[in-house]
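To whoever is on call:

I kicked off a structure prediction for a single chain this morning and the downstream step that reads the tokens threw a length-mismatch warning. I double-checked the sequence; it's 172 residues and nothing unusual in it as far as I can see. Pasting both halves so you can look.
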Amino acid sequence: MKYQGTILLAALCVLLGACDMPDTTMANGAVTLRDNVVTLHVDGAPNAIINAKGELQIGDKTITTTPPEQGLLVLYYENVADVHDTGVEMGKVGAGMGKNALQDKLSGKSKDETDKDAESGADQLKTLGKKMCQDQINVQNVQNQLAAQLPDFKPYGKIFNDEKKSCDKDDD
């Protein structure tokens, strides 16, 4: 029995390490965050790259932007990074729930105590899920502003749509 617990704890440690991955994929792969760069992928257009400084590159061409446009690009990047950070936090909470369930099982806690631990984790995940929805709405809002103000960004202006509706549906 003790050997099984050790294996489970080792597996949990591996999972915790995997939660801290630097990559995020959103919108069915249309948006990726890797190595501090957001890449946008849409059919019929070259990839667009946005870095943390708000610099935009489409295909091999660096796009000249005004300071307000660059500010929006920084916000776009930051909002995608927020989605990533929230996802990492959700992974940590989920892994913590698994660890607590294992510890509760091994220590012989009562069902009421284990249910209380599970409910606490579920509440944290629900709160983080709402935050992630808001993060995605924020990405969509900035995307819409960029598509309206920056002609080169228009092909990428429909990656996110109806995020608010999706989040409202999740609240039901």
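Update from on-call: the warning came from a stale cache, not from the record. Cleared it. Sanity check on the structure: The longest strand covers residues 31-34.
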